[in-house]
Amino acid sequence: DRASAASAPITPGALADGTPIPLLANLGNPAGAAEAVALGAEGVGLFRTEFLFLSSSSAPTIAQQRVSYEALLSAFPGKKVVVRVLDAGADKPLPFLNDAHEENPALGLRGLRALRASEDILREQLTALAEADAATRAAPGGGADLWVMAPMVATVEEARYFTAIARDYGIRTAGVMVEVPSSALLADRILIDADFASIGTNDLTQYTLAADRLLGSVAAFQDPWNPAVLRLIREVGDAGRLHGKPVGICGEAAADPLLAVVLVGLGATSLSMAPTAIADVRASLLEHSLDEAKAIAEAALAANDAATARAAAQEAAATPT
Ligand code: PEP
Ligand code: MG
User: Fold this and answer.
1) Does the pTM exceed 0.90?
2) SS3 string of 249-317?
């Protein structure tokens, strides 16, 4: 039961039938690592590197970046750590990467598009990550299993570009975020090149419903339970199964205990969230088998809107199979 979830023993994330579903942390600073581990994080599913540099007026040096990445990687020895290259723009502008005069920054030169337009910055970040990876692996405590991904990938060509350049720097596992509907719809092609996909449900919802995630007047549209969003997630899940590649979720949706079950039913193989959400999500996953999760997801998919999807999932989750 949820009330006792916080005091339940910390076990790896899993469904009732034993299917492992690693529960990972979203972090914006290595200083959060110890708390994440204490709360049961099995690794990091999203390290938002842009948070380190929001107040910088110039691009960070390789040496500056290495300090942060080494602190992060050494905090998770042997564990998976997914680092996102700078996601600058819209809600997270970086003065050294973005043009402040775009009329529609959410639709502008942001994420991987901005990095590609300033490719030196991307190359320096990949250099810093590769160096931090090598240094921590050689250190006595050991390093992490570093995965690197690009934000705001919208085309197959962008996925190819990023995975190729990341591999040039010795990154062993290179993937993409799926947070634009185009990349969800083409996930079966994108996962030919990319080693993994991680779905950012915050932006995926914003772009699917065409509703600014920061604008209160359209906040009602920003609901990842919307069956249109769920269908897109299913596309990515199916593509992951087709290619035998991992599909994580790293948007806020993964922190909703019931939606977490739906996401797994749609094909998610790991969930990443604010560390404080891990205990409740762990307890919720343990209540259902993979077959039940699929049935709960089907019930939500059959709905016309977010509220009905949530209610249908609640009812399916309460019905013993
Ligand atoms: C997302 O869009 O869901 C995501 C995880 O990235 P961010 O919230 O940092 O844009
Ligand atoms: Mg995003």
Assistant:
1) yes
2) ECCHHHHCHHHHHHHHHCCCCEEEECHHHHHHHHHHHCCCCHHHHHHHHHHHHCCCCHHHHHHHHHHHH
